[in-house]
Inverse folding.
């Protein structure tokens, strides 16, 4: 195998385009050699503008392509299980989009298939590959805000495109919880460093039968409490707050941090109490300190290269099997509570 991982892109939709453009633009250890679509025309259009050499008019043909080392599964949620397992059985490593599957039990089957095939399988939570995420974790673990007490996140958007939108199709695993709530759950569990023992959720369901607004809380064994809001019918700040006994960390763009100047702020103690400190000659440190992180590459290039390191160097993947299964279990439970099971 060369020092670059050869990728085949499964599907030609929105995120497939973003992933391919990120990899082509700035990946160091990844190259795109093939694309596969249900439609030969879509595959051709996708490949032409990006100079991708191998073009396949079916998913099976892509999986049979011997030049492909790894498949990027960018299909709708309900197809992750089927096509990830098919790709593994065809001898490919797989980076599978979030949410990993429709259920935790499907996810376990996918990892079992990976073990059987001896291939790497990872869930594509791209924000986990950005150094901003690592710095926030390091700041927390380094004690900069004291003891972690509470996490508050949101990931919301408003879309009016319902017809033809996979997110409004229950059969395809739609809904805001699966689409973006999975990020809030993932970051909260990452920061807490353990699995929640109590989960409470409420939701608004769209007439198409999928959730378009969810509010949920999670309580972790050490006492940390997390809350999140996700939805497809509402605007929110989409900021992450990591709150401790001595201060808090604010991450204004946690989910899709930019390649340069990705910011987070450490606020030590809550204004207005500390606002007074500057003029008093007392506490030397300012109450708020904003730091900037440069990633050096596009987000999806970082993700692809992390995956390449897992395959080529045997490094631990950005998101472990246990992490993915833990996330899916929370999605299962919230889905059960809001009446949305797949
Ligand atoms: N990590 C991220 O930043 C991020 C962002 C957005 C989405 N995602 C994830 O990526 C996946 C796809 O989302 P997307 O926004 O790219 O969706 P999309 O634009 O609708 O693309 C999905 C693609 O899947 C293929 N497909 C196969 N069966 C389909 C069906 N029955 N209906 C519609 N499409 C079908 C199509 O490709 P062909 O026609 O070429 O076969 C289609 O272009 C989801 O799992 C989503 O959660 C991740």
């Amino acid at each position: 195998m060369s020092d670059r991982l050869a990728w085949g892109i499964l599907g030609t939709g929105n995120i497939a385009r973003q992933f391919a453009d990120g990899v082509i633009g700035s990946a160091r250890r990844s190259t795109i050699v093939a694309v596969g679509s249900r439609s030969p025309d879509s595959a051709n259009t996708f490949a032409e503008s990006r100079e991708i050499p191998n073009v396949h008019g079916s998913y099976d043909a892509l999986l049979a392509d011997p030049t492909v080392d790894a498949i990027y599964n960018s299909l709708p949620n309900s197809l992750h299980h089927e096509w990830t397992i098919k790709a593994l059985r065809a001898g490919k490593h797989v980076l599978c989009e979030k949410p990993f599957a429709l259920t935790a039990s499907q996810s376990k089957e996918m990892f079992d298939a990976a073990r059987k095939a001896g291939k790497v399988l990872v869930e594509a939570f791209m924000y986990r590959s950005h150094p901003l995420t690592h710095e926030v974790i390091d700041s927390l673990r380094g004690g900069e805000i004291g003891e972690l007490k509470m996490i508050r996140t949101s990931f919301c958007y408003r879309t009016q495109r319902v017809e033809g939108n996979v997110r409004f199709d229950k059969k395809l695993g739609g809904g805001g919880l699966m689409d973006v709530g999975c990020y809030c759950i993932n970051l909260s569990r990452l920061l807490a460093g353990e699995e929640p023992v109590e989960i409470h959720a409420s939701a608004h369901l769209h007439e198409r039968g999928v959730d378009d607004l969810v509010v949920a809380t999670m309580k972790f064994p050490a006492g940390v409490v997390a809350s999140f809001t996700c939805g497809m019918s509402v605007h929110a700040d989409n900021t992450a707050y990591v709150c401790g006994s001595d201060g808090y960390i604010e991450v204004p763009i946690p989910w899709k941090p930019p390649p340069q100047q990705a910011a987070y702020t450490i606020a030590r103690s809550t204004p207005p109490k500390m606002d007074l400190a500057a003029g008093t000659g007392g506490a030397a440190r300012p109450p708020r300190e904003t730091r900037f992180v440069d990633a050096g590459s596009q987000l999806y290039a970082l993700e692809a290269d992390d995956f390449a390191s897992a395959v080529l160097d045997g490094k631990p993947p950005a998101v472990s099997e246990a992490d993915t299964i833990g996330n899916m279990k929370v999605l299962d439970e919230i889905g059960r509570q809001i009446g949305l099971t797949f």
